[in-house]
Q: What sequence folds into this?
């Protein structure tokens, strides 16, 4: 390293191409405050963005976004900032094939190009791609957005789990914003034992041992964390999946009164809004086709949905207001091996991302 580089401020040295300074634990914690990059994240249920309707502004992974549909119904996700005076585009108008900022009428196309500056025709802004545009797709009733870092602006392919791909499964999306650090939702879902205690009065989780030994089982894109010797009794296992999107899959056995379809599955994503709020997506899934699918949907909407929201509310109340950094107060034991491994995985992924960015002079 040259003397010139050594004399630069620490932040500038970190951004020097080829810098091999190791990434610190503090840097990893800071990066994880707003989720994991280079992943597809669900940001909003599709039904909340109407074709030709008012643009929707929101924050995800700490970034201000505007979502809108064009006249053909295609979804567009862009940075919520007019390139002229930086006011939110979500306060503008959807013109069907573009957004028009309400402040001075600047028009932005779906690819982020400034199409018109009515106040000054021929303005140098016209024709420039001045608004960041995000890759987006719709899966199982939700808008998914690719959040890449500086080395991964183009998205990787995401193949949704079969439970969200239609076919043999019916999936019903439940969505809510919870006041808590995003990772605590994943910790909660990788902790099957809490179901035996917190949800003991549930119509599906009142059985099963209050003592258990857990084991882990590796998969191609994650791992299972499951009770040894207990299956199809209670909340018996969780599966972490990290396959260009980060989610947890689990199943809860249903009694015959719960209708057709076997075990009741849940696919859960917790998309960070900021350090203290999380957009929570819970898909309720069952393997049903034909008339059985209709029966399941009817039973869910008329009898089961309030019960499921009651269980979710128990989780929300337990986690409400939980801020980052509680780990320093924890005393974990064997039942917590799933969330310990989850945390280790997230740290390892983030360390590699930051190391690559630093070597390229991007961090």
A:
């Amino acid at each position: 390293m040259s003397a010139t580089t050594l004399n630069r401020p620490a932040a500038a040295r970190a951004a020097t191409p080829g810098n091999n300074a190791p990434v610190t634990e503090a840097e990893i914690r800071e990066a994880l405050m707003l989720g994991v990059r280079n992943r597809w994240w669900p940001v909003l249920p599709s039904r909340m963005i109407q074709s030709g309707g008012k643009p929707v502004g929101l924050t995800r992974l700490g970034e201000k976004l505007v979502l809108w549909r064009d006249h053909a119904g295609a979804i567009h996700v862009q940075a919520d900032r007019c390139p002229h005076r930086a006011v939110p585009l979500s306060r503008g108008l959807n013109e069907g094939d573009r957004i028009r900022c309400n402040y001075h009428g600047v028009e932005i196309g779906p690819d982020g190009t400034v199409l018109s500056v009515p106040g000054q025709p021929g303005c140098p802004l016209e024709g420039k791609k001045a608004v960041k545009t995000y890759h987006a797709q719709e899966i199982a009733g939700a808008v998914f957005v690719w959040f890449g870092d500086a080395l991964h602006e183009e998205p990787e392919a995401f193949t949704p789990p079969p439970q969200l791909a239609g076919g043999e499964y019916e999936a019903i999306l439940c969505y809510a914003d919870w006041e808590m650090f995003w990772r605590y939702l994943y910790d909660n879902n990788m902790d099957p034992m809490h179901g035996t205690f917190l949800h003991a009065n549930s119509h599906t989780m009142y059985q099963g041992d209050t003592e258990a030994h857990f084991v882990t089982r590796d998969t191609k894109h994650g791992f299972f964390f499951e009770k040894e010797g207990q299956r199809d009794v209670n909340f018996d296992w969780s599966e972490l999946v990290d396959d260009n999107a980060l989610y947890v899959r689990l199943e809860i056995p249903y009694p015959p009164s719960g209708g057709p379809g076997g075990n009741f599955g849940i696919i859960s994503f917790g998309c960070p809004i900021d350090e203290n709020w999380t957009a929570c997506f819970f898909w309720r899934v069952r393997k049903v086709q034909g008339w059985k699918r209709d029966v399941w949907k009817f039973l869910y909407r008329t009898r089961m949905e309030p019960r499921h929201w009651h269980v979710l509310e128990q989780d929300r109340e337990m986690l409400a207001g939980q801020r980052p950094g509680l780990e320093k107060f924890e005393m974990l034991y064997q039942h917590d091996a799933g969330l310990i491994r989850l945390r280790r995985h997230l740290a390892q992924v983030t360390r590699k991302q930051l190391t690559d960015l630093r070597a390229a002079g991007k961090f």
Q: What stands out?
A: The domain at 162-347 is CATH 3.90.380.10 (Naphthalene 1,2-dioxygenase Alpha Subunit; Chain A, domain 1). Residues 290-319 form the longest helix (30 residues). Helices lie at 3-7, 10-14, 25-32, 182-189, 194-198, 290-319, 337-359.
